[in-house]
Amino acid sequence: MKRLFISLGIVLALVLGAYYFAVHTVAGQDALLARAAANIARQSDPESPGLRVHVCGSAAPLPAPGRANACIAVLTPEHFFIVDAGSGSSRNLGLAQLPMQRLDGVLLTHFHSDHITDLPNINVNAWATGHEGPLKVYGPPGVAQVVAGFNTALAPDRNYRSAHHGEDMLPPAWGIMDAVEHPLNATMSFGDLTITSFAASHEPVEPAVSYRFDYRGRSVVITGDTRVTERLRAMVDDADLLLTDALSLPIVSAMHQGAVAGGRERVARILVDIQDYHASVADVAALTRSTGVSMTALYHLVPGPRNAVMENIFRREFTDNMVLTHDGMEFELPPDSGAITIRD
Ligand SMILES: [Zn+2]
Ligand SMILES: [Zn+2]
To answer: Quick one: which ligand is closest to 207's CA?
Structure first.
């Protein structure tokens, strides 16, 4: 027994000594720093052959710690698109070390602020990391106005950066985003990848669309903001993965009552108004049960849960094939298979 205590004491002393060296000495700090810097410089661009879906923003505008506003990245070995650019999503894309220099475009489902305000940051990140040519921003009619506005606002920033790093490294023309307008219902082909836009129901917000990605026998539908519609039902019926807007009525109702009790009349009114233009969790569960979709993942959470209890309230009506997303979560869909791997 005495020997055991001596051994444990030696191990403990060695661990504490290593900790002290790494954290409190210059040599230890520099060694850790070099390792961290090498990791930061790496990109997360594995050669997985199928569809890779990355949650770069899982919340709606009501603030939630650790959750950016709406953003979903879809990657294949040859493609990289981002659906919506909510506040905080650019930071998440950077933390995930996604290959911004090969970003094919950003798709905007609609022009609510919580879906577009990180567009300039995403554009600057792509431009600075070597994206060749202007970044394309796809969307329904109105996208040109949004993109033109951001391009105008960011004109001084472009000039500073080109002047500082050189026009050979940052050609000014490549920092100007290029709007690509498409009809509400449209099919766009990029080699093996087909992106289908279809009308969403987010009235009075018009236009609003959802997007479906099909690639080598796998499919993902990303709703943006919408109620559940027959069109959505048809588009997800044979899909592998649905990423959907979802509003928790129990939580929003409780927040409404709290706002009324606290005399926050404007907040109370907003909490009523938002209930009729998002899909409720119950609606999403019914959609999941009544269609052939393999997995339903909730993002654009109204409100973004702040703790485990709120997450559990979201899950109350879940079926077995429903998941609640968080920022940084990934789904891997290998080609021509039924597998979906989730990475937390
Ligand atoms: Zn929204
Ligand atoms: Zn919206």
So the answer is: 2
User: Which tens digits make up the pLDDT trace of 256-282?
Assistant: 999 999 999 999 999 888 888 889 999
Q: Which residue has the tokens 């027959």?
A: 230
Q: Distance, CA 278 to ligand 2 centroid (Å)?
A: 8
Q: For residue 129, how far is its CA from the centre of ligand 2 (angstroms)? A: 30
Domains in the chain, start-ordered, CATH in brackets? 51-343 (3.60.15.10)
Q: What single string gives the DSSP state of each residue in 11-23? A: HHHHHHHHHHHHH
pLDDT of res. 275: 82
CA of 333 to the centre of ligand 1 (A): 26
CA of 37 to the centre of ligand 1 (A): 35
pLDDT tens, position by position, 174-196: 999 999 999 999 999 999 999 99
Q: Which ligand has the shortest distance to the CA of 114?
A: 1
Query: How many angstroms separate the alpha carbon of residue 110 from the centre of ligand 1?
Result: 9
Say what the pLDDT of residue 261 is.
93
Q: Does the predicted TM-score (pTM) go above 0.85?
A: yes
Mean per-residue pLDDT for 34-43? 82
- Number of neighbours of residue 145 by Cβ within 10 angstroms: 11
Radius of gyration of the chain (CA): 23
Residue 133 near residue 172, CB atoms below 8 Å: no
CA 323 to centroid of ligand 2, rounded, Å: 22
